[in-house]
Design brief:
Chain lengths: 389, 269
């Protein structure tokens, strides 16, 4: 007779068997990983001297030579990884020399063959390695791989490889087009991928900001933000009136960074901009220039409706030398009794406290003396003060 | 009857000098490799000679065994450091396979490794004998002198590849180098060794690069060069404001870094 108890016992046996099976599997995986680690450590020791030879002779006129022994597949794999790390770390001739060594070792040919393999996993691995070795011949296949690739992390692995292997500006344009097809907000990542291309990208970014498509404009602006190119300031100027707030801010940021001299009418216009972020950026840019020419503009900024802009203005003026500090103290004294006046006075007093504990630094000592003199002169004008010059 | 007893080291240096004199013309390079070996018979020597010839090392090589010191010596005429270094890989592979290697191989090539003098050769033999019983690595010998004002360097970088590379190249140029993989270790070594120069990454753990620069600037007369992945101008400005003397971004070229160190050394004079 077949009872429920029998079913329970059988289920128990099955569960025990499954448990045992999984335990064996887990143990096998663990053993495999340990064996692999041990093998990698052994190879690492074997390759250590060879890698020292590679690093020590990166600048010599002679090309680097392959190890003087026959390597097995595992050794080749470890050596490829170590060489990849070094290619990423070094620039110029040293990088080219390492790439040539990879070619001599047959790594380039090997991975170019794997790039056309049936298995997607192998193609992806080959793409990564070819990218590290900057193999220009791989660029068309890598761009083809991106054509119908779904949006996942592997897409960016291939894209980065394609950027590293890119032959010209056109390859990068195709790459950006393929990545933007997914309509995801990954503009910063795209710019970081483009940065891996061994091309001059300033012109490309300057061209992108002339596009109608806002995604291209965003990429162009993010890309230009890493350069200080006065030529780009004129191109981004018109984007400060864009219909998109984020483009306005990015454009202002690039403009302020790229311009060596900010015309007063432009500064006045930007200080009246509807975006608080832009007004704050302008004030910070003026403060960075530390030029007393802009003290009057900064004074105007102290009347801004937004407290963040006022704070940035005050902080900037504290770093603008005698004129900036005096103007700030006078403005604070003039608005005594108001909420704004209290805020400014507190800021000045806080700065005095901060500076007073850093007097071992000559620069801080000078700043402290200047600020204390201006403060006492403005707020305690009934007391006798001395200034040591 | 007078008995002349020569010290084994002096004997080794004398023999090595004789061998080098035979193949060193003064203008061409001359590679020297020394390896502590238990014994090295004629048969092994012929086998090694054959292996070296088959491996494109067609330049004249003189292989000998310094009996009193237990050192295998190889003199490679007209071989620059790169070739001598490569030949040492082959010799190491051979001596290890034969179970003969007993310490580190020391490689030099004159004049790349410094001026060829009796003192340099004596130092070479000493270095080689000192490594007996230690690991079986290849050591590059240098008799170069670092610029007077900057001779000791501390490298603080969590990236092993970059740290090891800079250390190796600076040591080849004659600098004394210490390394640290985080900010705390860097501060400890800074206090202990008082180096002339600190080369630091900004992205350090525990104590970051900015804090390290600030501390160095406040408490030491050491110069700081930043070698970092951070390429944004704001990072550069902050580093300079805190007192960094120079700023190099990765990926980098060692020639550029070495040039900046030399420039810094000139400024300190």
């Amino acid at each position: 007779m077949y009872t429920n108890l029998h079913i329970a016992v059988q289920a128990l046996y099955i569960m025990i068997a499954l448990n045992l099976l999984f335990a064996v599997l887990l143990y096998a995986v663990k053993l495999r990983a340990m064996k692999r680690k041990k093998q990698e450590d052994r190879i690492q020791v074997k390759l250590k001297d060879y890698l020292t030879y590679v690093q020590a002779n990166l600048d010599s006129a002679e090309p680097l030579r392959a190890p003087p022994w026959t390597m097995n597949d595992a050794e080749r794999e470890v050596l490829q990884d170590r060489l990849n790390d070094r290619i990423e770390c070094f620039a110029g001739d040293q990088r080219q020399k390492l790439i040539r060594l990879c070619d001599d070792l047959g790594f380039v040919k090997h991975h170019l063959t794997r790039l056309n393999h049936r298995s997607y996993r192998i193609r992806l691995d080959a793409a990564y390695h070819l990218g590290c070795m900057r193999v220009k011949d791989a660029a068309p296949t890598l761009l083809d791989m991106l054509e119908d690739h779904p949006f996942n992390s592997a897409l960016f692995v291939i894209a980065r490889a394609a950027a590293k292997c890119s032959r010209n500006e056109q390859d990068i344009r195709t790459l950006v087009r393929l990545l933007l097809r997914h309509n995801r907000k990954s503009n910063e990542l795209i710019v970081s991928i483009i940065a891996d291309a061994e091309l001059d990208t300033v012109l490309l970014y300057t061209d992108f900001i002339l596009y109608e498509h806002p995604a291209y404009i965003r990429i162009g602006l993010i890309g230009l933000n890493t350069f200080t190119d006065p030529a780009s300031s004129a191109a981004v100027y018109r984007l400060m009136d864009s219909e998109y707030a984020d483009i306005q801010e990015k454009a202002a940021e690039v403009y302020l960074k790229s311009s060596r001299l900010l015309p007063k009418h432009v500064v006045s216009k930007l200080l009246r901009h509807s975006s608080v972020e832009i007004r704050r950026l302008v004030v910070e840019a003026l403060a960075t220039m530390k030029s007393s020419t802009y003290v009057e503009m900064m004074e105007a900024g102290l009347t801004d409706n937004d407290q963040r802009v006022v704070y940035a203005c005050a902080q900037g003026m504290l770093r603008m030398g005698d004129r900036g500090v005096t103007a700030l103290c006078e403005r604070a004294a003039a608005s005594q009794g108001t909420e704004r006046g209290v805020f400014l006075q507190q800021l000045i007093e806080q700065e005095l406290r901060q500076l007073s504990i850093q007097l071992h630094n000559v620069n801080k000592l000078t700043q402290y003396n200047t600020l204390l003199y201006a403060y006492d002169k403005t707020f305690h004008n009934d007391t006798r003060i001395y200034r040591v010059i | 009857m007078a008995v002349i007893v020569q010290e084994p080291i002096q004997e080794g240096v004398w023999q090595l000098t004789q061998r080098i004199q035979d193949s060193y013309s003064g203008s061409a390079a001359c590679g020297v490799i020394l390896a502590p070996c238990a014994s090295f018979n004629q048969k092994a020597m012929e086998q090694l000679q054959r292996d070296m010839r088959s491996d494109r090392s067609d330049a004249a090589s003189d292989i000998f065994y310094l009996v009193p010191n237990g050192l295998l010596g190889v003199v490679l005429s007209e071989q620059k450091l790169a070739d001598a270094h490569y030949a040492s890989l082959l010799i190491k592979d051979f001596t290890e396979r034969q179970g003969l290697l007993e310490g580190q191989l020391v490689v030099a090539s004159f004049p790349e490794s410094g001026e060829l003098t009796e003192q340099a050769l004596s130092q070479l033999v000493h270095t080689s004998l000192q490594t007996r019983g230690e690991s079986r690595e290849i050591q590059l010998f240098t008799n170069q002198e670092a610029p007077h004002r900057v001779s000791s360097v501390l490298i603080a970088d969590p990236d092993e590849v970059s740290r090891e590379f800079v250390k190796l190249r600076l040591e080849m140029d004659g600098y004394e180098v210490e390394e640290a993989h985080d900010g705390r270790e860097a501060l400890e070594k800074l206090a202990r060794t008082m180096p002339d120069l600190v080369i630091t990454e900004l992205n350090l753990t525990i104590v970051d690069g900015y804090q390290l620069i600030d501390r160095v600037n406040r408490d030491y007369s050491t110069e700081v060069i930043v070698l970092t992945d951070n390429q944004l101008p704001k990072n550069m400005i902050r580093a300079f404001e805190l007192g960094a003397a120079d700023y190099v971004t990765k990926p980098f070229s060692y020639s550029e870094l070495a040039w900046r160190i030399r420039k810094l050394a000139l400024r300190r004079m």
